[in-house]
Design a protein that fits this description.
Length: 387
């Protein structure tokens, strides 16, 4: 069963969530029941494939044992080599998933959601290392966090400390009513985005673009139309999935962070990455870019702070690109956005000195126009049609 793939999935979770809703409206805790139904829904999602089920179980047990073992170690020691080894072990299954198919080899951990679970696991190790996670973690609650079914397939990527706070907060009847209404609203937004907008764009435009334009468009115009239509399709499809995940999470009392915030109205490329797939971009910013910059600053191997920052941007977007896949168009997509970020940073610093680009409604509108087109061209690269 594909998560959020058809109406049958929503009927099942609607029925299973009825006791959750009743308990919430009465101001009663529903944590234990939610854990129980999560197991059922995960079984429905992965149960049609024996290999997928075995992979999920083995992967989850591996990550759980790794996190718990590192947490126990961190209470006594803090070796950098052990920390690096733990992080590498955590991401090893994801690396194998990306690399082995290219080599024509089979892998064990190729199940839906392996990337998002890995991000959560790495986050736990990093924050344990930083001393942000000190208390002993219940294996059941940790497994619930890693395998939280509303977000297991397509995110958003939550943070443990935020998730833990919601998990141990029993909302009052009035507070839960707000969560419930918010959750239902997000689910309806998801239906609008995925099953109406994304469906119409795919079936009435992308099915015919860029080549089958029936002489209405030239080949070049067909490519341009594809670029814009694919960008809108990508947004509505992915934002729809994310809205479903946020909506179901809120019905379960977990306020999973939103993933999209009107990204096509961004005034510059930095603003775009603060609005698009936010949980992923913030994850890479906090756990890749910032750690790299702090590490390079501490080592003092490169004294120019802007050079360090720009290398960090290339590292961040290169990793973000190959996370999607090791094909050339994903790599180029990542490097393209690194160039956009660096170019904008240089322009911003230049303009701060010369003050030739004022901030007003006209420059804002021009910035939105430029950013929108630059982003759409990036998605055109991402689609692979350019190559």
């Amino acid at each position: 069963m594909t998560p959020y793939g058809n109406i049958f999935f929503f009927i099942i979770i609607g029925i299973l969530l009825l006791p959750t809703i009743i308990l919430g409206l009465r101001g009663k805790p529903a944590k234990n029941y939610n854990i129980f139904i999560s197991i059922i829904i995960l079984a429905l999602i992965f149960g049609n494939s024996l290999n997928g089920t075995i992979s999920l179980i083995l992967f989850a047990v591996f990550q759980l044992l790794l996190i718990i073992a590192y947490q126990k170690y961190r209470l006594q020691k803090n070796s950098s080599s052990v920390f690096v080894f733990a992080v590498l072990l955590s991401i090893l299954p994801l690396v194998l998933v990306k690399v082995l198919p290219i080599l024509g080899l089979h892998h064990l951990f190729g199940f839906l959601g392996v990337s998002y679970i890995t991000f959560k696991s790495v986050q736990m190790i990093l924050e344990t290392r930083d001393g942000l996670i000190k208390d002993k973690i219940s294996p059941t609650e940790l497994a619930y966090f890693l395998l939280f079914f509303p977000t297991v397939s397509s995110g958003p990527i939550d943070r443990w400390r935020r998730f833990y706070k919601d998990l141990h907060t029993v909302p009052s009847s009035q507070d839960y009513q707000k969560l419930l209404l918010s959750g239902i609203n997000y689910i309806f937004v998801g239906f609008l985005y995925k099953f109406i907008f994304a469906y119409l764009i795919y079936n009435y435009t992308l099915m015919y673009l860029p080549n089958h334009t029936y002489n209405y468009l030239t080949p070049f115009q067909g490519q341009i139309a594809y670029m814009y239509m694919y960008s809108f399709y990508l947004f509505f499809d992915f934002a729809g999935y994310s809205a479903f995940a946020v909506g179901v999470s809120r019905i379960m009392g977990i306020q999973t962070p939103i993933n999209f915030n009107r990204p096509f109205s961004s005034r510059n490329i930095k603003d775009f990455w603060n609005r698009w797939h936010m949980s992923l971009s913030f994850w890479f910013r906090d756990y890749v870019y910032m750690r790299f910059v702090l590490w390079m600053t501490k080592k003092k191997w490169i004294k120019n702070k802007f050079t360090v920052s720009y290398i960090g941007f290339f590292l961040l977007f290169f990793l973000m690109g190959i996370w999607h896949g090791l094909e050339w168009h994903f790599v180029v997509y990542g490097l393209y956005h690194a160039l956009l970020i660096i170019s904008f940073d240089k322009f911003e610093r230049w303009n701060k000195k010369h003050k030739l680009w004022p901030k007003n409604k006209w420059t804002h509108a021009i910035g939105v126009f430029i950013t929108f087109n630059a982003v759409c061209f990036g998605f055109y690269i991402f689609s692979g049609k350019l190559f």
